[in-house]
Structures are given as structure tokens and as C-alpha cells.
């Protein structure tokens, strides 16, 4: 039984229970992935005060008291419902990491523009804090701040597509593809904030969407494995951090590299926090040329985090 199945039973006597809504849109838009849960992650609230240093115990099953705490944070507005299959996004901070290496020039850069046009409005509409935007090579003059859990050199709390487009238009692809290095710089302050909070449940989960044409010039796998081990050590929910690699272009070696990255995490014996998918600009079934279909959008914005919810360990009932 999933954690949210447990919550349904525990609170089934309450007429105000938000889970009385039948949430089937996720499965309707994403039928090929039976592992996706139809219930949401716990809602995030900003009123939880940090306390002492978090424990570094390795992968200890969460206690029922923690589950009760999460249940109390859930509210009606954060529940996936029949009208909005993307309602999960209200519970996550969405971070875009764009590959701006020299291989992204020409048609691939234009494809990134189209992907952002399709996805950004969905995310900004549901993230009250706004989305964060980073590039692999380009750096802004902005300072993220350790207390915020954000890396330097990014663009923060963006609330609309126009701002993203302006930033994107001012960036030109050049250089190599140090995907791992940039992921490390993004994950490090977030993990530090999570660990220092003393109450990881009070820290909003993140979903990192990496838009790239494929093969990195460094080793992102080791960076992700290290992050996964830290998350396991803090015993945070499996959806606390996810990384979605979205490939533009159709280079076979790049597709193979991304698939291996996804598959190898399981072999490392750590949490699976990565998902991969690709898109061709000639249009998908149910979508016009240059447009993403509903299942594709859903996979991009939620594929690395939502499918983890059903796998979370839960207290016995």
C-alpha cells in the first residue's frame, strides 16, 4: 500500500478529506507508466521552523510519526484532481538546467526554445515561488545564497515565459558540456539546506529538468550517485529530489548515454532519482509540429519524481 493509500484509510471518516476526489488524470495522460501514483506528495508549507542538525543515519525506514506529520501538511489545494493532472507541481520547486554547449547551436537551440515554450507556462502557473533557470556554461551575476539552497550564477523565481525567453535569447551556445559539474553546483547548496534544516519535511522538494542534446564531457553519474547517497542518509522521501534528462535531437549515442545513466543508478544500490525522455520536433501523436503532446509534457515535468511516490516505505496500518 502506498503512503497515500494509508492516508486515505486513516482519514476516510472525515467529510473534509481532500482525497475523496478521484484523481485519474495522471493515468489517463500517462497510461504507459503503471508505476505512477495517482495521489500527490505531501504539500509544502513555509511555516515549519528549522531545528537541530539532521541525522545522517543510513536509510532507516521512516517512523509513523513522520508520516503523521506529512499528513497534517496536506491540504486540498495541493491534491491532484480531475481538472489538473499537473497539480503535483504546486508541491515542487522546478529548476531548469539548459545545455548551452557548442553542440547546441542551430536547430537544437531552436528546439530548446520550443520545449521551453511548451513546458515553462505549465510550471510557472503552479509554482508560487517561480521557477529557477540555469545554463551549463553561462553564468549570471546573481548570487544564490546558502540559506536559500540555490547555486550562484542562475536566474531565480521566474514567474512567466517572457522572462525565460528574454534570458534564453541573450545566451549563445559555446564551450563543452560539463553537465556533472553544473549539477553538483545546483545540488550542493540544496542538500546543505536540507541537512541543516533539522526537519527535511519542511524543505520543498525539487525537480531538475535538464534539457540537452546528450553526451556530457564529464561524469554526471558520480555526482548523482553521491547526491542519492546523501539523500538516503538523511532518510528523506524518494521524491525529495528528481532529475529529468530531456534530449533534443536524435543522436543515437546520446540517447544511449542518457539511458545508461538512468539504468546504472539502480545498479549502484541507491535511490532512483533520474528519468530520461526525448522529443523530436516533427511532432508526436496528438500534437502539432513543434508541440509536445500531453503525455510528453507530463513525463518531462513529473517523470523523475512522481513515479517514486508509490515506492515510498510506509508505516503498517
UniProtKB/TrEMBL annotation:
Name the InterPro entries on file.
VWF_A, vWFA_dom_sf
SMART domains, A to Z = VWA (SM00327)
- Fetch the PROSITE patterns from UniProt: VWFA
Residue ranges annotated for the VWFA domain, each copy included: 93-262
The record's listing under SUPFAM superfamilies reads: vWA-like (SSF53300)
PANTHER family recorded: SLR1338 PROTEIN (PTHR34706), VWFA DOMAIN-CONTAINING PROTEIN (PTHR34706:SF1)
Descriptive protein name: VWFA domain-containing protein
Q: Name the source organism.
A: Clonostachys chloroleuca
